[in-house]
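How a chain folds remains the central question behind the approach discussed here. The record that follows shows the chain in one-letter code together with its fold in token form:
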Amino acid sequence: MIIDSHLHINSKVIRDKQQAVKNINNDTNIESVINVGLDIETSRECVRLSNKENKFYAAVGIHPLYIKEENSDWLIRMCYNNDKVVAIGEIGLDASKKNSYQQKINFIRQIMIANAVKLPVIIHSNLSSREIINTFENYLKPQYGCVFHGFQPNLDDLKYILNNGYYVSFDGRITNKNNKQILEVLNLIPLDRFLVETNRPFSIKDERNKCINIKSVISEIAETKNLSEEEVEYATNKNVKTLFKRMK
């Protein structure tokens, strides 16, 4: 059974959320999922759902594309006394927007909160991995680990990530055989440093991107690294529980 380390079941793109939850609960290939917040509203929904459904865990935070001028006390309150909240995320930087200063302030503030509540962080790094690494080096590092989700391949950034004990995660884009760079990166990553995800519904923007497709990600990794699917499943599940220590 596989752990989907990153999805957004609260997205407006998913029209029938109750059915989506039911499908995950009934899927015997899925051990559990981490439902990731993008702002206050979706983070609260993630927490509520995690408290109702055994397979669901929550990550709470403000995505760089959804930041506003607001108090962060709610984020701290969500993390205390709730073992189903396993991470702060997704947080980070996104180079597609011009509010880089505001993004960075928000990013650093949330790393501070993650360190205070002793949780890892889930990193969004759209065209910004180098700037995120500079932020770690010049301002503040996550003290309880992090994962660069939906990793965009860059060998220099990968070296830093691995040297600092961080993780990367792969989604359905890895199944694109024409993406030679991401397969090259995959070959360099040891078994104890990667996770798998669907990033549903954002990696493949149609109804094909369901949790069941996590099996295709596992299969591609197994083929690329010349391993069995069982070996890859075991490794990634172990990695998830190593990073997100509140998961059972």
Observations:
- The chain is about 40% helix and 20% strand.
